[in-house]
Design brief:
Elements (H helix, E strand, L loop, with lengths): L1 H103 L4 H27 L2 H7 L1 H15 L3 E7 L9 H21 L3 E8 L3 E8 L13 H12 L3 E6 L5 E8 L2
Parallel strand pairs: 1-2
Antiparallel strand pairs: 2-3, 3-5, 4-5
Helix pairs in contact: 1-2, 1-6, 2-4, 4-5, 5-6
């Protein structure tokens, strides 16, 4: 009996050691499996994020190409309209003005005075058509320059209906790396001004160009009736401005309140 008890005491530590080794082994296996699961999950997430990022980039590139194609189509349409205005409507107005001048020479002085107002209106219309046709042609805008094109557009609108239409330039002028971007910003401003003419009832317009070392800040305002930002629906004009701004990686914000006019802010990274 004493021998059996001795053997039992001697065997017990051996059994405990085996259990300890087994426990350590199981823990190590669990750690390895857990590590493999974590590594697999991390790799899977990275792969998934990479695929999502690639898909987003592809979608952005596709949308950018669509926007670029739409913009090019719009520019070509504007160019064609400009040609039509200059070549056809302009010629008709010139012919009408010339015929009126001939008729004016053949009537008495009393009738000549009545012809004077009509002749003046025709000449003013001809100037307006020629000015508008130039603003629709990209080559002309690039030729006369970005700032001069904006100034000409404001002068044209001032003659139409506005009490003041002012262009303010701040900072040292920085040249655009891509001159096509000048056209896009000009078209955005043209769209804003067109909306002011049609909807705002404004009397005064102001555009501020602030050149900074690496970006151009553009602020355009009118003092019209404004609108409620929470209830207004996005029309084609606002969508066009936003898509054009996105095309040149510029930020665009429109702010307005009823009876407080409208303000456009555009920030364009020049370089």
């Amino acid at each position: 009996m004493t021998l059996n008890l001795l053997l039992l005491v001697q065997n017990k530590p051996v059994s405990t050691a085996s259990e300890r080794y087994l426990l350590v082994y199981m823990i190590m296996v669990l750690i390895i499996i857990t590590s493999l699961v974590i590594v697999f999950f991390v790799v899977f997430q990275k792969r998934k994020n990479k695929l999502l990022l690639e898909r987003i980039k592809e979608q952005q590139a596709f949308e950018e190409e669509i926007t670029k194609a739409q913009t090019e189509t719009q520019e070509q349409t504007l160019k064609n309209i400009g040609w039509e205005l200059h070549d056809n409507v302009g010629q008709l107005l010139s012919f009408a003005s010339m015929q009126l001048s001939i008729l004016k020479m053949q009537v008495d002085d009393e009738v000549k005075e009545k012809f004077g107002e009509t002749s003046k209106a025709l000449k003013e219309s001809l100037r307006e058509v020629r000015s508008l046709s130039k603003s629709l042609n990209n080559e002309v805008v690039l030729n006369i320059g970005f700032e001069k094109s904006i100034s000409n557009e404001l002068d044209r609108l001032k003659k139409m209906k506005f009490a003041s239409a002012e262009l303010i330039t701040k900072g040292d002028k920085v040249h655009f790396d891509n001159r096509k971007h000048e056209i896009i910003i000009f078209r955005i401003l043209q769209e804003f001004l067109s909306n002011s003419v049609k909807y705002s009832g404004a009397k005064n317009l102001k555009i501020i160009l602030e050149y900074q070392p690496h970006n151009l800040s553009v602020t355009a305002t009118d003092d019209g009736i404004g609108f409620d930002m929470n209830t207004i629906e996005q029309g084609s004009g606002l969508i066009n401005m936003q898509s054009r701004a996105a095309l040149i990686h510029a930020s665009l914000e429109i702010a307005s309140k009823p009876n407080e006019g409208v303000q456009l802010k555009l920030n364009y990274p020049i370089s």
